[in-house]
Each structure stands twice: as C-alpha cells, then as structure tokens.
C-alpha cells in the first residue's frame, strides 16, 4: 500500500494582516523564512510570544500567508504549560476555542478565542482521495512504524482539496510518542 509522509507540526501562529500590523508595526512585512510542504504555505521570519494565564511560550513562528482569522496551534503539553484548555479542533474551527494573548515586538493582542490543539489530519488532493478510497471529513487510522515506538493513531481526519499536497500532520506530543524524528512514513488504515 502507498505510504504517506508524516510530518510533525510544531506550535505555530496564524494571523490576519491587521493583527500582524498591530503586533509587528505598520511597516512590517511577513517575510518567508522557508517553504512548507503544503503549496503556498511558509514559515515566516517573524516570531511572537504566546501568553497564557500560567506561563508564556516565547519565539513562536508565524506561518504565512495571512489568514482570515487568528489561529494558534499548540500541543496538549503546551496547553498545560500555558494554563489554557486543550481544545482539539480541525484547523479553521476556532469558534469557542481557548482565549490567548499574543505579544509582538510592537504590540499585544488579547484574543477571546483562537487557541486550539490541531486534530491529527491527512492532506489529500481529490485524486489522492480516490486512490486511497476515502473522502473529505472521513475519520481514519494512521500506522506509523519507527525503530522503537511504532503505533497506530486513531481519530485522523482526511482533508481533501485541490490546493493540498499529500501528507499527514501530527503535533509534537504525537510525534514524541511515536519517536517520529526525521523522515517518517505512515500507512492509512480505514
């Protein structure tokens, strides 16, 4: 069976242009540091601090391009560190999620929602979905074989779009549980 690249999605921040200007200044620009595996997505050179009721996490990357709404993606461990509820959601589903504060070089933003623990997911093109026999929104399992901590992740959502490239995203907690350092591939289990 065809394997799927499994990538670790570390904590990161998405903002809109207006929020970026508040945090980084009117003259600031969102500059590309490195491209990501999803077409058109990138890690920027800009980093912010995430501030929760208990603690803060410093130097967290903003991903580009700009989004419609702010979204802060963290792990469950990060949620405990920050002192916010670890609300598991699909990317983009931030309504009623955890409040959080962002601190940039020029300003701060108190967000009433937007902080989530991203649900494990597989990005697929429509052709990939046909090849794997799955559809958008379907929940599947992903088997990851590593040297010493192979496991099967349940509750992995399939996300299908012509804009995507085939890969699976797990957070740092999941990656550490599987000892998934370096280049790792997984097998889809329906």
How would you summarize the topology of this molecule?
Elements: E1 4-8, E2 12-14, H1 17-24, E3 32-35, E4 42-51, E5 56-64, E6 71-74, H2 76-82, E7 88-89, E8 98-103, E9 108-118, E10 121-124, H3 126-132, E11 139-144, E12 151-160, E13 167-170, H4 172-177, E14 184-189
Parallel strand pairs: 1-13, 6-9, 7-9, 10-12
Antiparallel strand pairs: 1-14, 2-6, 3-4, 4-5, 4-8, 8-9, 10-13, 11-12, 11-14
Radius of gyration: 17 Å
Poorly predicted tracts of residues: none
Distance between the termini: 12 Å
Work out the helicity level: 10-25%
- Described by the principal axes of the CA atoms, the overall outline is globular
Continuous helix count: 4
What is the mean predicted local confidence, pLDDT?
96
Strand content: 35-45%
Q: Structural class of the helices, strands and pairings?
A: mainly beta
Q: What is the H/E order?
A: EEHEEEEHEEEEHEEEHE
* Number of DSSP-assigned strands: 14
Could you give a short account of the major beta sheet?
Answer: 8 strands, mixed
Looking at the chains present, what oligomeric state does this protein adopt?
A: single chain
Summarize the structure.
The chain contains 4 helices and 14 strands. It has 190 residues and is mainly beta.
Explain how this protein is built.
- By secondary structure, the chain is mainly beta.
- The chain has four helices and 14 strands.
- The chain has helices at residues 17-24, 76-82, 126-132, 172-177; strands spanning 4-8, 12-14, 32-35, 42-51, 56-64, 71-74, 88-89, 98-103, 108-118, 121-124, 139-144, 151-160, 167-170, 184-189.
- The strands form two sheets. Strands 2, 3, 4, 5, 6, 7, 8 and 9 form an eight-stranded mixed β-sheet that branches. Strands 1-13-10-12-11-14 form a six-stranded mixed β-barrel.
- Strand 8 (98-103) and strand 9 form a beta hairpin.
- The protein is globular and about 50 Å long.
